[in-house]
Please model this.
Amino acid sequence: MANRNNNGDIKINKKDSGDHVQQASVTKSPAKNQTHSAKMPDDEDIYISRIPKAKKTPQKENTIKPVRVDTSFSAVEDGDNHKKKKVKVPVLRMIWFILMLIISIFEIVNIVLIVSENKAEATELMMIFLVFLLVEWAYFFIFCVMFKRRMELEIIGFLFSFIGLAITASVYPDRLMTQFIAFLVGMGIYIVMLWFMENANRVTLTRLPMAAAALGMLALTLIIGSTKNGAKNWIIIGSFSIQPSELAKIAFIYVGAATLDKLQATRSLTAYIIFAAGCVGCLFLMYDFGTALIFFATFLLIAFMRSGDIRSIILICSAAVLGALLIVWFKPHVASRFENYRHIWESMDKGGFQQTRMLIYSLSGGLFGVGIGEGRLRYVYASTTDLAFGMVCEEFGLLMGILILCTFVFLALYTVKNAKYARSAFYSIAACAASGMILIQTALHVFGVTDLIPWTGVTLPFISRGGSSLMCAWGLLAFIKAADIRTYPKVMKELLQRL
Model:
């Protein structure tokens, strides 16, 4: 019977003459259960453990493949058990290229139709749209090909922005340049925000300045703002005009998400409630009830994601309802703005003129539309802003209108999926709040013009004419993009190498 060492292992010396055991002696094992992957020399000792033989299972490769980020990296041994990790981030460039090609063909066809209908401004319109196409493809080659970023969100933004530019050019060709400049500024805001939010420390440090900027813009609008369509929400300087409440949406989400850590520690929403109340109060004083409702709904979304306390949300909603009743009680003329709700067909030529025409003309376009520049809704006031969804359905078809709505829903689902894997709570909260704000604004626009809810006159994100609205939409898209860890390959590689 073989002798065993203190650890219970049997020492066997392997000789060149054969595979049988020649001699056994008790020797202390240098390491318990030590294994060697390389072939052992003839004169080296082999230690056999007493552990019962288990069933052989295929050894898993030292490879980690996080499905959620579509990224894989392998660890290979080199030297003295030193592990060197190689991370590879696949980018489906061919898919993005095909999608970009498809939307470019769609855009070129509509550009030809628009230019042929506006021969007087044909040269200017053609130049603007050509620059738009160049910006699209330049972004693709720089950020997708060179920096290896995904393109699903940008493709949505490009397509919807073009539809908005096309509607503007067909109805107001002289205002296309203004809308195009807003698109370029929006793209700039998008790129800068993505760069800025790569470093979470910068976000924390700028939380208070952003809050002050948001309240300052709204307060300044109350002081020097101009009234349009019953709401004092514009600042006009010469030929330049801006709607600060649209830009304040970005700051509203930014501040709310950036203060998450402090609020979780103190279990209190007091700080953000004060900030949100200040913003919503300013909007009520401006009579911009549609934007105020968007802010309030977004606040509820952020507050619930932070605290998860249903009682607090119910208390806040009760206070908001009480405040709304007090406003209607002391200022009855506010309620008159909603007196046509559910009665638009009874006043087709008065208060319900816009909504009834929108319903009639949008359905007359059929599934594929009457063609850009051929619709009749264009002659109705605010057709390119408050009635933009009707313009899309009439001239581009009901299928395009349904596709736009489904895309906004997809954007929300996409955000929820990626937010679960964001690198911090800020990115999760900001992305969900941004997609929620876009979805809420879309619902208010579509359900309002169709008389399913009171019409508040809010714009359709990306598509309605208005520079401030377009810039805000691109800013909100940046929050959604930043929550996806694949947006920052360097950060993702660092996180994966820590696993």
Summary: Residues 93-117 form the longest helix (25 residues). The chain has 17 helices and eight strands. The longest strand covers residues 72-78. The beta strands are 10-12, 46-48, 63-64, 72-78, 82-88, 226-228, 231-237, 240-242.
